[in-house]
Design brief:
single chain; mainly alpha
Length: 154
């Protein structure tokens, strides 16, 4: 998966934040308006969206003379693919996974345990399977996120 440049990431953030999964998408003008603090030309935003479409990051559909854009995948799916790509960079995948597991917060570890338990089909008292959406939602707020460089508590 291709890494995104700063402007591509800003455009994708607009699409991920503004376009619900059931939406028909947004136009170049709507994206440019959402990036109002950047003082970007319409043609710049159009070029970025065209390149993102070429990379498979966005889907577009013709509406009259304009295109409507929407993300090809969710932000979470994109991040998960980046993590998988990082594991393929070389070295020991096992060692990288262990190092990652030791660096997450307690809440993040709960989410991982629940997801792994759910994937393995574990159910019943004391199992970690179950409501992964509720655990994931706990991480979506600012309290669930660590600032860059901060390590997990143990």
């Amino acid at each position: 998966m291709t890494r995104l440049g700063d402007l591509e990431r800003a455009v994708m953030d607009v699409l991920w934040d503004v376009v619900p999964g059931t939406s028909d998408g947004v136009t170049v003008r709507e994206v440019a308006d959402a990036l109002d603090g950047r003082e970007l030309a319409y043609t710049t935003v159009m070029t970025v969206l065209d390149r993102l479409a070429g990379k498979g990051m966005v889907q577009r559909e013709r509406e009259g003379r304009a295109w409507r854009y929407r993300p090809a995948a969710s932000r979470e799916a994109h991040i998960a693919q980046l993590m998988l790509d990082a594991l393929d960079l070389g070295g020991s995948r096992d060692a990288a996974l262990v190092r990652f597991a030791r660096s997450v917060t307690g809440t993040e570890a709960e989410v991982l345990r629940a997801a792994l338990g759910s994937e393995a089909g574990l159910t019943g008292p004391g199992s970690t399977g179950g409501d992964t959406d509720a655990l994931t939602d706990r991480l979506d707020g600012p309290a669930g996120r660590r600032p860059a460089g901060e390590t997990a508590e143990r």
